[in-house]
Structures are given as C-alpha cells and as structure tokens.
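testing teh design pipeline on a random one, pls ignore if ur not involved
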C-alpha cells in the first residue's frame, strides 16, 4: 500500500483547481453563467477540502492511537523488566 502524501495531494488539488478556473475563464459564456460555474466550482472545492481534511484527521488519530498503544506496551514491558531485575 502506498503512503498517503498530503503535500502531493494538495499540489494535485491546486493544479486541478487552477486548470478548472482557467478553462471556465477561457470558455465563451455569458457573465452570469460564468459566475455561477465559478461559484459552483468553488463550493465543490471547499467540500472536497473538507472531506480531505476529515480523512487526514481520521488517519492522524489512528496513528496517534497506535503510537499511544505502543508507548503503553513499552512502558509496561519496562516495568516488568525493572521488577524482574530488582528482584533478581
């Protein structure tokens, strides 16, 4: 499984956004239609950013939980080793 790379995703998303805006601005349309499409595109972009942020947040929380479990296991193992050496 490939690692999730937030920087690469952000760069890709910005590139898509810039390309979409350029396409809208260069397309022959009425001003009102163009403004509506830009507003819709901005709304879609914001929604995508929210979904991405939520996904990254869930992944970060999972990593934090796994790390906390590993730390607790290491502390417990250290306590057992200390007690074993102390009583030897």
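output:
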């Amino acid at each position: 499984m490939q690692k999730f790379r937030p920087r690469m995703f952000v760069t890709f998303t910005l590139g898509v956004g810039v390309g979409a805006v350029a396409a809208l601005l260069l397309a022959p349309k009425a001003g009102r239609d163009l403004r509506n499409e830009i507003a819709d595109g901005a709304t879609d972009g914001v929604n995508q950013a929210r979904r991405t942020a939520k996904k990254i947040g869930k992944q970060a929380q999972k990593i934090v939980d796994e790390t906390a479990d590993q730390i607790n296991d290491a502390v417990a193992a250290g306590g057992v080793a200390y007690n074993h050496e102390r009583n030897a």
